[in-house]
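Can't paste images in this forum, so I'm doing it all in text. The chain is below; anyone willing to post the predicted structure tokens underneath?
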Amino acid sequence: MQAYTQAGDAQTPVGRFEGRIKFEINPDQGAIKILRDNFNFMVDPLPGIKHPPSFELDFVQSENTLIPVTRGLIRTDNEAWDLIVEPGRVWSEPGDNGYTRAAVPFALQERNANCTHNGVLTFLFKPGGDISRAAYQIASETCFYFQYDMWGVAEASYTPRRVANANAILAAYKQEMGGKLPVKPIAELGADYPAIDPDAFAAPMDVTPEYLTTYGVVIEGVHYRGGCLTRYGPYPFCESVALPSYSTAKSIFAGLGMMRLEQLYPGAMNALIDQYVPECAAAGWRDVTFGNALDMATGRYNSRAREADENASVLDGFFIVASHADKINRACTSYPKKSAPGQQWVYHTSDHYILGTAMQSFLRERIGDEGDIYKDLLVDPIWRNIGLSPVTYTTRRTRDSVRQPFVGWGLTYLPDDIAKLAQFIAVDGGIHDGVPLVNTGLLASALQENKSDPGLPAPDKNFRYNNGFWAWNAGGVLQCDSPVWMPFMSGFGGVSVVLMPNDVIYYYVSDNQEFAWARGVQAADKHKPMCGTGDDHG
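Text version of the structure:
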């Protein structure tokens, strides 16, 4: 990774980049080393799985930063990978003979899924259009079931030209950078708050270091961030590492989206699924509300055993079918009615896909067929207001003309995005500049702040699930006399975002199915004790 990092004797870049660059990937000029392949992807490999897709993008330069005009998830024709490209750096080094160096972070995200493999590429250029080959490598990921190192070279071509809206792009990037939370290394947490042990967060006993992508703690609006290690040294662009949501999207998209819909249209939580999803109506769904689906309490399931239905849906192909018609038909027909809606929690990603389909229909009934639940309920009114990065402006969708958002998974964040989202939810209570952006009552219930609405046991008395958010009773770990309900968001593989009632936020992103974070809670309790902050609501 050091080869993709600005050298100590680097100089101000001698050239300025503006125009289009094309990277042509030749499979014969690259290699892949498989480290984990739980689903045997490489037994009969998809075309393109062993290398990045070729791509071309416009870039503009701001001082020593190289900014891609298109940010967020880019759909490609590669059968295995879609693409994310983030701002990189430009600099000059002695002996480069008038060329300027560039290094750009990128990520491959599994097509139709959320596995994300972070890489870097580098090349040299001159303002007139001369350009070297590009070298790339991938040596880290957030993906439990498919892990690899990938490296190679690509032929590059550079067409200098004026980029439309370049000034607006540069201004937006400057505003984005200026709006980031203050960042300090995690080691400084102990200096600023001597009662807190920084080593308690992402401790090796909780998260195996080699499977940790990154982590952080947010206190009083300061983001104490851990590093971003790869198998070959620190990732040079830790601030731009692409982090998959997995099921934290159930809180961020389904949860906040539904809270926004209720804010705009009071009573939306009580709307009925079968009135907005014909496929579910045909399958006999009755009396199931949007709120029931958000709570994963539709009354329809095969087994109440932990993850049994969810694992079956993986085998059934719900996650990998590409079209909305296939996904919604599987979602509506997979489970028979076993109990009354609202009584029994059973974990189903498909419930949130159904909810998203219903929300889309509900919204379009009110604002027209161009309505989009992700853009209109979240990106424009919330993400842009609280200063999230453009990476969050896109989400996974079905690969057809419907382009239905996945809702229960499929978002991508940068570390600052996780910190800001968690702060907006847990510290600001869904209010920005004095204006509630979501229904604050529903959010308070999700955060276990409403004694009359604690949610359902999920799956036992020490866990709850309400409005898309989990909660865990940390009273025992904190040696309290009464329960302390700790709201959190959770994602497949090892993604946790803990929203502590003392306004400390702790997150980590990993991929070895490790979800332990009690040590971090105990450390944060030394800052502001939490006993008594969450009496028994049940």
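The radius of gyration is 23 Å. The longest strand covers residues 18-37.
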